[in-house]
Fold this protein.
Amino acid sequence: MTIVYEKSKGLTDTPFHYCPGCTHGVIHKLVAESLVELGVLDDAIGVAPVGCSVLAYKYFNCDMQEASHGRAPAVATGIKRVHPDKVVFSYQGDGDLASIGTAEVVHAAHRGEKITTIFVNNAIYGMTGGQMAPTTLVGQKTTTSPFGRDEAHCGKPIKMSELLATIDGAKFVERVTVDTPANIRKAKKAIKRAFECQIKGEGFAIVEVLSSCPTNWGFTPLKALDWLRDNMIPYYPLGNFRDFGEGK
């Protein structure tokens, strides 16, 4: 029998712990497939901090390192400098990267660290109880903004891709989503390109992936994807903000 599809060798056989409808599993798959297709799985080292992705070390079939909340870019920097021949990536959520870890990711980009960051933005703190995150939309209800995010009190949601794209050391910046098969294919292309940026020694690369959180949003999985399309994508437009191949 001809095998037309099989689970990526970049993933272990450990069942995911993510909630039904969460797209972390899809994103894991894309990262794993990219590492395999680029032939760097055996040379890859991932860094997972605190958050829903905290157990990523169980899922990726490569060396993994845990980091404190928000500190994954700093840990990845240390690993890459000690092992410059390895492909080092961090896998972070928005409560992690865009809040307590803002300084780490901004300065890693500023220094042009040759690491790759996968940034999962679901506009809320997931694992810790559904609190408002820096990426929570205006009017969005969370456990710490029960009446909706108030722009006058909290400001507008931070747009990390746009911010990082202004930094010279950031050589690849793209925002994607995984709500449809077509967008999943585009997301994989971006993730693979981000790893190529590191492999070619160009500098810092980040892919922001708009994701759903049905549990903390209080929606069914399908309704959550509708909400993402209707609310997140208009505020966080998809597209490439910087590519190391431009002008070459």
Observations:
- Residues 185 and 234 are 20 Å apart (CA to CA).
- The chain has a mean pLDDT of 96.
- Residues 181-199 form the longest helix (19 residues).
